[in-house]
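Protein 1 of 2
SEQ + STRUCT:
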Amino acid sequence: MLFEKHSTAALTEPSSKMTAQKGDNPLIWPLLSVLQSSNQSWKVHHLATELQNKGLMHDLDPLPEKDLFKRNFLLMNALYELQDILLPKQWLQVKSMEIQLFRIVPGNADLLHRQDAALRDYYLDWKNYDTCVNVVREMLESFWSSYQEYIGINIQLMNKGHALKVFELDETASDRDIRRQWKKLALKWHPDRDQGNADRFKEVCEAWQTLRDKSLVA
């Protein structure tokens, strides 16, 4: 790997609190758009540049080496989340220098998935981002704001009842139900999917903005 695992000494919140309060990584969906739009293999820093050009990646730390690490962490976190979301219908190969989306899942996908387990667990654990939980949440809120502007989401929060209806859920839905349905519907209606629909995707994103504060537990 190009990036060493960074020290977590700078954490100022208990690790359990970090895990419980993390938000959804909004880079998942623009990354899907980038990967769906091309059959080429990507490198992590090329994906970062592509998202920067779209106004969806920002400076994350005044120290260049820490900014580079945090940028890499966010991208790898989103890529591993997307890898799990797409399985078993598509295979997303996640290597720092060779990232590519395959429409046909390879026969040894389960083996490949298991081989990357330790690295995937590392990047899916927000404790390793090397910052306090409040900064992580503020950063993700900033990314969500940028993404809302990018895809043209209505900034007015949707009525909760309407949001649950969009998610095909009722008032008894648990945090896990809401989060699972969010990923399912966002993937189903993502405009770069074969059966996607941009208007439905925006509606799902707007519903998520209303419901997501209830669903911060993964």
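Protein 2 of 2
SEQ + STRUCT:
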Amino acid sequence: MNVMIAEDDYHVAGIHEKFLKQLQDIHVIAKAQTASETIQLVDQHQPDLVLLDVYLPDQLGVDVVEQLYEVAPHVQIILITAATEKEIFTEALHLGVIDYLIKPIAFERLKEAIEKAQVQSNQLRQSPRITQALADSFFLRVKDNSDKEDELPKGIDRLTLEKVRHLLQVQQDGITAEALGKQFGASRTTSRRYLEYLISIDEAKAELEYGIVGRPERKYWKL
């Protein structure tokens, strides 16, 4: 994922960049210090994601979000701010930013926001059509995190669960636990634990598939 940082304080921008370099498959391709420079560089580089500060010297970051969408229709935006005013937060919601981070930012919170952006980007790129399950993964994300996070059983990590949901979503012919585990770097046992959990909450199903030789395989599909 190609990421751009829009932050007028070069020291803070450097901290953001240092955080991002610790994340896998994340590349910082540009940095801007003003709103006008942000629009220009987003148009030029077409990043997947922009970390956008609210208080830029020439214009509020939140006021250029629509212009960024115009020059880069598929860009995702995470708003980063010291602002705690409800009006700015409400406007950010209306504009469709994918996350809202208040300074000072904890690394784990930034990591979570970046991973959410990655998951959403991959889902849209790989899904041939919008299903209700895909829409729910976007619009019910806040509700799911707040209402269900504490209900996850031991051994089930929320971010890993999101990856498993996404990988299962794109399997048209079903997939075994072992094959799915290879896709997200986990053992067959770990993969099956997540798949069986999805079955328990009515988000997946499994059937035995009999081959020509050997034992039948348990294949999983997303409901």
